[in-house]
Write a structure and sequence with these properties.
single chain, alpha+beta, Fructose-1,6-Bisphosphatase, Chain A, domain 1, D-Maltodextrin-Binding Protein, domain 2, eight-stranded mixed β-sheet, five-stranded mixed β-sheet, binds 2,5-anhydro-1,6-di-O-phosphono-D-mannitol, binds magnesium ion
């Protein structure tokens, strides 16, 4: 049995960088415990606050953010926190070399229906500033709070999965995720079809057409509405996730956030042999101009991502 500390000790990364993973793992264990009992403790209602994107914040968003911040403050290797729940970055008075960008509780609209949600995070070199492209990430990961609490992490070369046991330890359960190159499962919010661009319409129409259509195979559709859950499924068994730029989100630059949603997921997908694109360029190459910037996201099995890119290349 390999635990997270065993695995981290065996990686050829700086011990302080490894300690950032330990910090995020510890925060996720605490968040998982809060979520498990939230319906009983009454922590599921709206708090009456809005976050920087003007969305309602639930107590659990705030609680999760506080838990992450508390853990980060205890690790002198981390000097900056960027969070979906905080308008401004938090600068901690230390010499820490690392910046953590996080969505402390992604998919929180699913909490009241007991669907998998998660904590997503990205690790950057704090000395290089706040606005670095995803390709500069030193590590990334997410915790998925589902039937099991899973921790999926990467320092670049491999994406490994750990599962929380009854003793509060993360145990290695998949040494190296490998996204199948081909797949026939797509994930997109089809209720937005009227807003889609021609490329997205083309890709989905081809997929729906089945065996006799241009894609030449029957596709299936899955949309959980919780990015962690949708991306976890894709990392494990393949598929493609799309939240493209559409006529409604175009003024905002997309729906999902670059620094703490798209980038960490894109790094994990790349480590597992998959690909990501905005439609026009790799997600990992987008240079941010704002810490809360949004971006179009398409990621998953390489062949499906290539089909989407081919549609974008047409016009
Ligand atoms: P959140 O950060 O406010 O939870 O929003 C992000 C979530 C993702 O988890 C998910 O993929 C997407 O929003 C779902 O969008 P939609 O409401 O269009 O289904
Ligand atoms: Mg989110």
């Amino acid at each position: 049995m390999t635990t997270l500390p065993d695995w981290l000790a065996a990686q050829s990364v700086d011990a302080k960088l490894a300690s950032v993973m330990t910090t995020m793992a510890a925060a996720s264990i605490e968040i998982a415990a809060v979520l498990r009992l939230a319906a009983i403790t009454g922590q599921t209602g709206l708090a009456g606050h809005t976050n920087v994107q003007g969305e309602d914040q639930k107590p659990l968003d705030i609680i999760s953010n506080d838990i992450v911040l508390q853990h980060i403050r205890q690790n002198p290797a981390i000097s900056v926190l960027v969070s979906e729940e905080l308008d401004e970055p938090v600068h901690i008075e230390n010499q820490g070399a690392y910046l953590v960008a996080t969505d402390p509780l992604d998919g929180s609209s699913n909490l009241d229906v007991n669907v998998t949600v998660g904590t997503i995070f990205s690790i950057l070199d704090a000395r290089k500033g706040l606005l670095q492209p995803g390709s500069a990430q030193l590590g990334a990961g997410y915790a998925a709070y589902g039937p099991a609490t899973s921790l999926v992490i990467t320092f670049g070369p491999v994406a490994a999965v750990f599962t929380l046991n009854d003793d509060g330890e993360f145990v290695l359960t998949t040494e190296q995720l490998s996204v199948p190159q081909a797949s026939a499962e797509y994930a997109i919010n089809t209720a937005r079809e009227r807003f889609w661009d021609a490329a997205t319409k083309g890709y989905v129409a081809e997929s729906v057409a089945g065996e006799t259509g241009p894609a030449g195979k029957r596709h299936n559709m899955r949309w959980i509405g919780s990015m962690v859950a949708d991306v976890h499924r894709i990392l494990v068994r393949g598929g493609i996730f799309l939240y493209p730029l559409d006529s409604e989100t175009i003024s905002k630059g997309g729906r999902l956030r670059l620094l703490y949603e798209a980038n960490p997921m894109a790094l994990l997908v790349a480590a597992a042999g998959g690909r990501s694109t905005t439609g026009r360029q790799s997600v990992l190459d987008v240079v941010p101009t704002d810490i809360h910037q949004r971006v179009p996201v398409v990621l998953g099995s390489a062949e499906e991502v290539a089909r989407v890119e081919a549609w974008y290349a047409k016009g």
